[in-house]
Specification:
Distance between the termini: 25 Å
Number of helices: 12
CATH architecture of the largest domain: Roll
Oligomer: single chain
Shape: flat
Radius of gyration: 20 Å
Order of helices and strands: EEHEEHHEHEEHEHEEHHHHEEHEEH
CATH superfamily of the largest domain: CBS-domain
Largest sheet: 4 strands, mixed
């Protein structure tokens, strides 16, 4: 019996509403520590989807109706997860909206939601089969502003860090990067419309959108080397290891990516949770 979308989705997701503004979306992203959400009208029907990536790509746009994408990847609760995997691969985005026959929003699916199924099915194909993105290692001495520029130009949110001998010594994500960002709490609260009485937001959520503050020159990244913020001796996966092992490591640690090493224990690639989704449709990926 096939697994249905309803079994892995996150039900009753946070939704933005139109009419609305960029500030409304940023506020929700921070308060709920999420990176994207469906957009509904006043009747609760799906009209679009918006993510931090949409905001970063259009920093000058204020109206939600112009920020959101109307071409929304959707599935039904009774669809199979294989159908959902195909749709996620086709759109190349991290959020799929689950709707009923009337376009009412019932849930949302991200790559992380597929990991449990991959583990349960013990998908044994090697990790190397599903590597889809180029690997861009950075040196330990790379200054943080340069790391940020690399993330902006490649649209990647994580990089492996290597030493003088090109050996893997760390990994840095956008959240690690902005852990060192300098931003005034009062400025952040004012920009996002957060009051002193707010009880459900924190710095972890703020890091989801702090990139925008940096782009608008409201926050500074110090020129320190990436070695000072990277995660040292990161968990990695052997290229010949089965996909389910990579999924298990990601799920257990809430990772979105893993460095991949070859038979000589050298860095050869990065594998992302979105890459592993393709293993659910097997031969169709080839």
């Amino acid at each position: 019996m096939k697994t249905k979308v309803s079994e892995i989705m996150t039900p009753n997701p946070v939704c933005a509403k139109v009419p609305g503004t960029r500030r409304d979306v940023l506020r929700l992203l921070v308060k709920h520590n999420i990176t994207g959400m469906p957009v509904v009208n006043e009747e609760g029907y799906l009209v679009g989807i918006v993510s931090r990536r949409d905001i970063f790509e259009h920093p000058e746009e204020e109206q939600l109706a112009l920020l959101m994408r109307k071409d929304v990847p959707v599935v039904n609760v009774n669809d199979s997860i294989e159908d959902a995997a195909r749709i996620m691969m086709r759109y190349g985005r991290r959020h799929i909206v689950v709707v009923d026959e009337n376009k009412k929003v019932l849930g949302i699916i991200t790559p992380q939601d597929f990991l449990g199924v991959i583990i349960e099915r013990k998908i044994s194909e090697p990790v190397e089969k599903y590597i889809s993105k180029p690997c861009f290692p950075l040196h330990t001495c790379t200054p943080l502003p340069v790391v940020f520029k690399a993330m902006t130009l490649t649209l990647l949110s994580a990089f492996p860090i290597v030493d003088d001998n090109a050996q893997l010594v760390g990994i840095v994500t956008d959240r690690d990067l902005f852990a060192k960002a300098k931003i005034d709490m009062n400025v952040a609260m004012s920009e996002l419309g957060l009051g002193d009485d707010e009880d459900s937001w924190n710095w972890e959520g703020l890091r989801n959108v702090i990139k925008l503050f940096y782009m608008e020159e409201k926050v500074n990244l110090p020129g320190i080397p990436v070695s000072e913020v990277m995660i040292s001796n990161p968990v990695s996966i052997f290229s010949k290891s089965p996909v389910w092992e990579a999924a298990k490591i990601m799920k257990k640690n809430n990772f979105s990516q893993l460095p991949v090493r070859n038979t000589h224990d050298e860095l050869m690639a990065m594998i992302f949770d979105s890459d592993l989704v393709a293993s659910l449709v097997g031969a169709e990926y080839e």
